[in-house]
Write a structure and sequence with these properties.
The chain is an alpha+beta fold. It has helices at 8-29, 34-56, 62-82, 94-97, 142-147, 158-172, 203-208, 211-224; strands at residues 90-92, 102-106, 125-127, 135-139, 178-184, 187-193, 228-236, 239-246.
């Protein structure tokens, strides 16, 4: 029961549950008061809702999560910068990585990504096509981990993508107030409302995109089951816009 000391939703839910049961039994069997019985049942129903909400609160505080995130980004930035990589990442679905959606950064610059027709090996440096220079870095990102929190992969329509983003960013991670999505001609546009993640200009972000864009690209790659690139991302007042391109 130690979690009740730190979780206001669970404390309130347990209190309403006890009070509702204590009131409902005598109100129905002894006093025969319909309105009081209905009130007690409403308290019990509300208690279940609060207890469910209590389970959605992360075990780690946002400050601790931010420290972990920044540490990972700094280490990845150091690796990418040390290798002198400037290419943009291509987000691959789990059907091409064999595990979960990951980001592939091609090492050959200026060349379009050829079709990937096989499941890539789970290594840092992978050969993704038949050309002599078709090598790249295969990296797990915050988006790779975030997609695993979804119960199932969404379908590639705007409503499903929007629902998945809202479930992750708002319901589970608490990183934003909401997301709207639009799909047109192989391009996915997402507007994230009131994000609570700072977008720093790091070497890693220039290659992989911001954490918000990484999550959006990973979800979209998994939904379409095709490679995805981050075409553009920028703040829009209190919101954040991410434009993704689904590759053929």
């Amino acid at each position: 029961m130690g979690f009740l000391n730190k979780n206001p939703y669970s404390r309130a839910g347990l209190g309403l549950l006890i009070a509702g049961v204590v009131i409902a039994l005598p109100a129905y069997f002894l006093l025969a008061l319909t309105w009081l019985t209905a009130l007690a049942i409403s308290m019990v129903i509300m208690s279940f809702i609060l207890l469910a909400l209590g389970k959605t609160i992360p075990k780690l505080s946002p400050e601790v999560c931010n420290l972990v995130l920044e540490t990972g980004i700094d280490n990845m930035s150091a690796l990418i910068e040390e290798l002198g990589i400037r290419n943009k990442a291509v987000y691959l679905p789990s059907s091409l990585t064999g595990d979960r959606p990951q980001a592939l950064i091609p090492l050959n610059s200026g060349q379009p990504l050829p079709p990937i027709n096989k499941v890539l090996n789970q290594r840092l440096i992978v050969k993704y096509a038949t050309g002599p220079d078709d090598f790249g870095l295969l990296l797990s990102t915050i988006g790779s981990i975030a997609v695993g929190l979804l119960e199932s992969a969404p379908s590639p329509d705007a409503d499903e993508l929007e629902s998945a983003m809202n479930s992750l960013l708002t319901g589970i991670l608490g990183m934003a107030d909401g997301t709207s999505a639009a799909v047109q001609d192989g391009q996915v546009t997402m507007v994230i409302r009131n994000p609570r993640v700072e977008n720093k200009s790091t070497w890693s972000n220039r290659c992989l995109g911001s954490p918000l864009a990484s999550i959006a690209a990973s979800i979209t790659a998994e939904a379409w089951d095709r490679p995805v690139t981050i075409k553009q991302e920028e703040p829009l007042g209190n919101n954040y816009s991410v434009i993704l391109e689904v590759l053929k």
